[in-house]
Design brief:
Bound molecules: zinc ion
Largest sheet: 4 strands, parallel
Number of helices: 5
Strand content: 15-25%
Shape: globular
CATH class: Alpha Beta
Number of strands: 4
Distance between the termini: 32 Å
CATH architecture: Alpha-Beta Horseshoe
Low-confidence stretches: none
Structural class: alpha/beta
Helix content: 40-55%
Strand order of the largest sheet: 1-2-3-4
Number of domains: 1
Order of helices and strands: EHEHEHEHH
Radius of gyration: 16 Å
Mean pLDDT: 85
Length: 137
C-alpha cells in the first residue's frame, strides 16, 4: 500500500516531525513552500535531505510546491538523496503575483529563481542527462 504525506514547509523547518525519513513505507511526499523565501529555502531543504540521509528512502514521488528557487544544486541534491525517485514535480510559477499591479508582479518575480534552463542547461533533456550522469554512470 502506497503511503503519502503532505505538509507545509514549516513542519520540516520547525522540526514538528523530528525525522520524516523514519516513515519507512512512505512513497509519496509533497511539501508546500508557500511560506518560504529565497533566504529560507536552503535550510528547509537541508533539514529534509538530512532526515532521509540518515535512514534511506523509498520515496517514488516527490512534489515541492511553490518552491522559490529551482536550480542545479537542488536537483543534484534530490537525485542523490532520493535514488528511487520516479516522479519529481516542482513549481515556482504559482508564486507570481498577477492579481495586483506591475510593481507587485516585478517584486514576486524578484523573489524566485525558477529554472536553471537556459542559463545552465540548454533544455530539459540536457539537464536530465547531466544530472543523471553524475550519479549513475
Ligand atoms: Zn501591486
Amino acid at each position: 500500500m502506497q503511503r503519502s504525506f503532505i505538509c507545509p514547509s514549516h513542519v520540516v523547518a520547525g522540526g514538528l516531525i523530528k525525522n520524516i525519513g523514519s516513515f519507512v513505507n512512505l512513497q509519496d511526499l509533497k511539501i508546500s513552500f508557500t511560506l518560504e523565501g529565497l533566504s529560507t529555502q536552503d535550510s528547509v531543504v537541508r533539514r529534509l535531505l538530512d532526515s532521509f540521509s540518515r535512514s534511506g528512502t523509498n520515496i517514488r514521488k516527490l512534489t515541492l510546491a511553490e518552491i522559490p528557487r529551482i536550480d542545479s544544486k537542488l536537483l543534484d541534491s534530490l537525485s542523490l538523496t532520493f535514488p528511487h525517485l520516479e516522479s519529481l514535480e516542482m513549481d515556482s510559477s504559482r508564486r507570481i503575483d498577477f492579481d495586483c499591479c506591475t510593481v507587485c508582479l516585478e517584486d514576486s518575480l524578484g523573489y524566485m529563481r525558477h529554472s536553471p534552463i537556459p542559463d545552465y542547461y540548454a533544455n530539459t533533456e540536457k539537464l536530465a542527462v547531466d544530472i543523471s550522469s553524475l550519479h549513475y554512470f
